[in-house]
Amino acid sequence: MTAASLFAAAIQGSNTIEHITISSSDARALVEHAPMSAETSEGTRQAVVGYRDAMTYVRQTPLLEIAHAATAAVRGPGRDPYARS
User: Fold this and answer.
1) List of residues 6+ apart from 71 with CB closer than 8 A
2) pTM here?
3) Residue 33 and residue 78: Cα distance in Å, rounded?
4) Distance CA 15, CA 80 (A)
């Protein structure tokens, strides 16, 4: 399997858990930034595009940067993510 087909399958599977279903061909189109089928509702389209974009960000961002952002989010705005509580 190619990286693109694995990513498409991950998008399809992860969204199915949330009761958002898309076809395999729509998942492939999504990964390729191609139009999805006309049968796909706008709400579904927005949800899976958002998921794709979030996963693309995570895949491209160093893990430490994600950990720091998560820590800062938990501590609240303006708090030093490196400070000990």
Assistant:
1) 81
2) 0.68
3) 36
4) 34
Question: In a structure prediction context, what are the per-residue pLDDT tens digits for the chain, which is 85 residues long?
Answer: 788 899 999 999 988 888 999 999 999 999 999 999 999 999 999 999 999 998 888 788 777 777 777 777 777 766 665 666 5
Nearest to 12 by CA among 2, 4, 3, 21: 21
DSSP string for 7-62: HHHHHHHHHHHTT----HHHHHHHHTTPPPPTTS-HHHHHHHHHHHHHHHHHHHS-
Question: Of 4, 75, 24, 15, which is closest to residue 46 (Cα–Cα)?
Answer: 15
